Amino acid sequence: MTTDGKTAARITSAEEYEIWGLLSQLNDAIFKARENELAPFGLTAVQVGVMYVVRMLNSKGIQTSPSEISRWVFREPHTTSALLHRMEKQGLVKLKKTSRGKRQLRAELTEKGEELYRRQVEARQVIPEILDVLSPEERQQFRAFLERLRRRALEKLVVRLPFP
């Protein structure tokens, strides 16, 4: 069933492969273009994503532990933790121990991290240039389609235990 109550035709293998291929190629191309844009700042797209999440969570008073950040960036907690430690060595973030214990960390951007984040935002052009190929109405539709697809994909990530 579709959202309007009509029965949808099943997707063919060829159509599935074509759509999956296009989504993968789009993601890879945008990611690489963004990486090229960030190179002069010495940042990666993944680092900027983490910096965005740290800023957003801090602004909302939400704990910025590696496990919380990992939920937002779709990475494993140990991968996010290792990334945060590398970013700390680069002077981009400061990891502080919380009052809960020595192993519980909280991330904050340093002055250097804030400055580089601000500068890369001001210089950002590649993603808007790519998306400008769509009209405002098309971008709104595209976003709605992506949100629906993401919601369905997240539903499929839920682990369901078999019934005994």
Q: Can you put this structure into words, describing what you see?
A:
It is a single chain. The protein is mainly alpha-helical and 164 residues long. The protein folds into two domains: 13-123, Winged helix-like DNA-binding domain superfamily/Winged helix DNA-binding domain (Arc Repressor Mutant, subunit A); 125-157. Helix content is 63%, strand content 9%. It contains seven helices and two strands. It has a two-stranded antiparallel ribbon with strand order 1-2. Strand 1 and strand 2 (101-109) form a beta hairpin. The protein is globular, with a radius of gyration of 19 Å. It starts with 12 loop residues before the first helix and ends in a 7-residue tail after the last helix.
Q: Which terms summarize this structure?
A:
Arc Repressor Mutant, subunit A; 2 strands; 164 residues; 7 helices
List the helices and strands and how they pair.
Blueprint: H1 13-38, H2 45-59, H3 66-73, H4 77-89, E1 93-98, E2 101-109, H5 111-123, H6 126-131, H7 136-157
Antiparallel strand pairs: 1-2
Find the count of extended strands (DSSP E, 2+ residues). 2
Question: What is the H-and-E element order?
Answer: HHHHEEHHH
Overall spatial form: globular
Classified by CATH, the class of the largest domain is Mainly Alpha
How many domains, as an integer?
A: 2
Number of helices: 7
Mean pLDDT: 90
- Percent of residues in helices comes to 55-70%
- In CATH, the architecture of the largest domain is Orthogonal Bundle
Indicate the low-confidence ranges by residue numbers: none
CATH-derived topology of the largest domain: Arc Repressor Mutant, subunit A
The CATH homologous superfamily of the largest domain is called Winged helix-like DNA-binding domain superfamily/Winged helix DNA-binding domain
Describe the strand arrangement of the main beta sheet, using strand numbers.
1-2
Sketch the major β-sheet: 2 strands, antiparallel
